[in-house]
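Handoff note, outgoing to incoming analyst
You'll be picking up this chain. Sequence as last confirmed:
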Amino acid sequence: MHFILASASPRRLALLKQIGITPAQVIPAHTDETPFKEELPLPYAKRMAKEKALAVAALHTDSWVLAADTVVSSGRRILPKAEDEITARKCLKLLSGKRHRVITAVALVKADKVREKSVMTMVRFKRLTPAEIDSYIASDEWRGKAGGYAIQGLAAAFIPAINGSYSNVVGLPLTEVKAMLSTC
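Most recent structure output, in case you need it:
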């Protein structure tokens, strides 16, 4: 499979390698990731994945380009990537003791061919104590993560149950991506 991964996420590259897939190149897409006013989580994730794939595909017209976008949502609300401690704390407090959705949209593009897929996983958080939130914030693991947590790290202790794809929550639904790439 010859394709370009349009992503700056080391997790996506590691997930692909975990199942024996290595992209020919990794080229981050530089797109504005600001949600539109009142944009819902699923349409937002789909739009972002497609925009990222198209941005890189425009420069590499002979290659398949794979891009993805992962969104953590609570109801109709899109939680941000936590870039600062205040945002991370707000996300963790919002998720504490509740269920939320993690949606990853994937786009595979070459010239005028566009293939898209989205996967949703339900995640349940236990009720977090202030000390647990403080400890997690001190770990710095939340930095740059959608919803302010990484299921594959220390936050695994906060999650008693998921319904759906684990790799989707990490950032790439591997079963679906492998099926998409097999058609290239």
